[in-house]
Amino acid sequence: MSKRPDNAPMVQAKQVHKSFGRLEVLKGIDLSVDAGEVLCLIGPSGSGKSTFLRCINHLEKIDGGELSVDGELVGYRQSGNRLYELRDREVCGKRSEIGMVFQRLNLFPHMSALDNVMSGPVWVKKESSSVARERALRLLDRVGLADKVKSYPNQLSGGQQQRVAIARALSMQPKLMLFDEPTSALDPELVGDVLDVMRALAEDGMTMIVVTHEMGFAREVGDTVVFMDGGVVVESGEPKVVLTAPRHERTRAFLSKVL
Amino acid sequence: MTDPPASPADRVGEHDEDPATPRTVPVRHPGRWVAGGVILVLVAMLVNTLLFSHVERGGVREGRFQWPVVGNYLFDAPVIRGIGVTLELTVIAMVVGIALGVLLAVMRLSPNRLLSGSAWVYIWFFRGTPVLVQLTFWYVGIAYLYPQLTLGVPFGPAFYTVNANVLVTSFVAGALGLSLNEGAYMAEIVRAGIISVDEGQTEAAQSLGMSKIQTLRRIVLPQAMRIIIPPTGNETISMLKTTSLVIVIAGADLWAATQNISAANYQIVPLMVVASLWYLFFTSVLTVGQYYVERYYARGSSRALPPTPLQRLRQELFHIRVQPVPALPEAPWVAPHE
Ligand SMILES: Nc1ncnc2c1ncn2[C@@H]1O[C@H](COP(=O)(O)OP(=O)(O)OP(=O)(O)O)[C@@H](O)[C@H]1O
Ligand SMILES: [Mg+2]
């Protein structure tokens, strides 16, 4: 379904810059994620991990560099020598192909789990509700919540809410999933279930970028670990290497704090 | 009304014969008895003056409040017609006011300076001038300034021209004035509601690919309702009574109807009572309605809704344990089934 050449990366960032007013948060990020790859993004608080993820689905607009998803620039359409800024409707279309799960639990509180998972397909893709319902039920079953279909978010535990959020993102059949510390807001005993769902998703071949402090998960599931600090990529490579034998002093200092 | 704390009271009497346990003496509240007595006397005076006292007017001894006169006019045809106008004005002003309020609130929150600026100016103007003046303006001011109202291309040809006095009747002026004024107040209420919804909700909706309009309509506004409903209920109740101002522009509402009658028969106070009884009746209905609407929009924010007053009454009368209602039945108004 994509026009992407077979070996082109799913996400490619070249010298991505982003500032909030005077504060330069991303100072030239270079990285690429292949289709089917799981990239884990680690780094200290404030290093710009969330900001980078938000740039990928255009919740933030980048100030410099080049960022493309599936071979197409984020937020722009190239035609000849010109870059045309995308209209709101086109941006929405692009976003609907990228799933995102946030750190803060943000299911829609006025809708049941099922309706949360159906909302995207029915309202954005205008699917018939019977088709959307069937898929939503299947997805809720897949994240282990077949019995919570009718529950409202405030009747679910944090871990259950986060799994519904994953199902909601998957309901749009995304080609890329972004996770922004999906387990940081959860009680320790609820983290496992969410990570299990993510692990299964990775095994199914989903392309994923995961901002996480769960080093065990990064080591087991990640194909690549990227360490960011101060708005730049300090070090990246295989999890084994980066997490056990980091080359940079800053990576070492960070890991010694979190491990 | 407040029950004394359960445990010491239970012990009163119960252990009387047990010398080891000291007797508990509950605190006395002599002040409450005095206050209760005073109130009782005042209520008795009120009932007496309302129902049983008489007064001499023009040599005739008659009931002070002339309840039979009130009864005669309570369902009088002009009064009923006036009620119709009052209700119509209230509904129109609130419906248009709410729609306008949503529009203005969204404009004020827009990053576009021109939009937010014009909304600000609108609110500033319509909240800053008395509604009585606004009503008068729409009724007489418009026709004075623009005797001929024209529909056409700005600075270009006109397609349609009408006499302002024909178009802007007393009712139209009243509905217009009340609606435009209400819009300014509703804008602030809606804005407060929208701001109260967590930004994460907007982000989640946008990350699914929802447009700004969809996000507002499906995600933000339904959640903002919890904040918007209570003050909107107050606005509606207030509007019901504010409609009485249309009497200054030859309106035909409830208050004007009763005033017309008393101007003819000089039964001033009884007709005031007629109007007041009707206003009280409708505000009471609105108060009950508001309670249930609030309850409805509280879904998703509390796990179980408290029992309704009716349920509580039944509970107290028959000592029936009413099951707390599960907070969240099907939500047909937001569910993505349509
Ligand atoms: N909308 C914004 N306006 C202004 N500054 C912002 C905004 N969003 C983020 N920042 C700033 O950008 C910097 C990077 O933030 P970001 O959320 O990307 O960090 P992070 O690596 O995700 O940190 P954490 O691990 O704490 O989530 C921070 O200093 C933050 O204060
Ligand atoms: Mg973050």
CATH fold annotation of the largest domain in chain B: MetI-like fold
Integer-rounded radius of gyration of chain A: 18 Å
Global morphology of chain B:
flat
Question: Which strand order do you get reading across the main beta sheet of chain B?
Answer: 1-2
The largest interface is: A-B, 41 and 30 residues
Strand order of the largest sheet of chain A: 8-9-10-3-11-12
Structural features, described:
The complex is a heterodimer of chains A (259) and B (338). Chain A has 259 residues and is α/β, with parallel strands linked by helices. Chain A has nine helices and twelve strands. Chain A has helices at 49-56, 88-95, 113-124, 129-142, 158-170, 188-203, 215-221, 239-244, 249-258; strands at residues 11-20, 23-33, 38-42, 64-69, 72-73, 76-79, 82-85, 98-101, 176-180, 208-211, 224-229, 232-237. The longest helix of chain A is centred in the last third of the chain and has 16 residues, at 188-203. Chain B is mainly alpha-helical. In chain B, 66% of the residues lie in helices and 7% in strands. In chain B, a hairpin with a 5-residue loop joins strand 3 and strand 4 (158-163). In chain B, helix 4 (77-108) runs antiparallel to helix 10 (212-242), helix 4 runs antiparallel to helix 11 (254-265) and helix 10 (212-242) runs antiparallel to helix 12 (268-297). The longest helix of chain B is centred in the N-terminal third of the chain and has 32 residues, at 77-108. Chain B is flat, with a radius of gyration of 28 Å. In chain B, 28% of the residues are buried. The A-B interface holds A 57, 59, 88-89, 92-100, 102, 104, 106-112, 115, 118-125, 129, 132, 152-155, 165, 168-169, 172 and B 198, 200-201, 203-212, 214, 218-219, 222-223, 299-303, 327-328, 331, 334-337.
